[in-house]
Amino acid sequence: MPEIRFSEPSNAAEVSGKECISNELSLSNGSQMNLPEKIWTAVTVPPRPAVICLVVVYVAFFFDWYWLWGLFLLLYGLSDLARKTTWLVIPIARRDYPVVYFAIVLTWILLGSYWLYVGVYF
Predict the structure, then answer these.
(1) What is the pLDDT of residue 10?
(2) N or C: which end of the chain has fewer CB within 10 A?
(3) Roughly what angle, to the nearest 10 degrees, separates helices 66-83 and 98-121?
(4) Where are the domains of the chain?
């Protein structure tokens, strides 16, 4: 990874006020990069499925759509089965703690199924 150095002002007149802030970055490989460009490239766009899912979570919360929470938990449990690891405060791998892993995954699937059933039929 290249080392980043801020360039120093070239004379004493630049040190007063806002002019002392340099907009140039010097990389160890000799190239220059504009500071706003560096900040912009460091900001990453969040993954679209996560943002969409977060919006759906808020919608489900405000409209009391229990069937959607059930669908989320059901999908979460099934994806944990496919990945062979789950999270409940800490990551639990199937190969390390199989009894706890299956208890957690079964809980997600049962709760998801129950909330899906309650949300659709009641």
Answers:
(1) 53
(2) N
(3) 150
(4) 4-42, 48-121
- Start-to-end Cα distance in the chain: 57
**Closest Cα to residue 1, out of 26, 23, 27?**
27
Full-model pTM? 0.58
Answer yes or no: are the C-beta atoms of 81 and 93 closer than 8 Å: no
Per-residue model confidence as pLDDT tens digits over 49-73: 888 888 999 999 999 898 999 999 9
| pLDDT for the residue 58 | 93
DSSP letter for each residue of the chain: ---EEEPPPSSGGGGSGGGGS--EEEETTS-EEEHHHHHHHHSPPPPHHHHHHHHHHHHHHHTT-HHHHHHHHHHHHHHHHHHTEEEESEEEETTT-HHHHHHHHHHHHHHHHHHHHHHHH-
Query: Which of 43, 47, 71 lies closest to 57 in space, CA to CA?
Result: 71
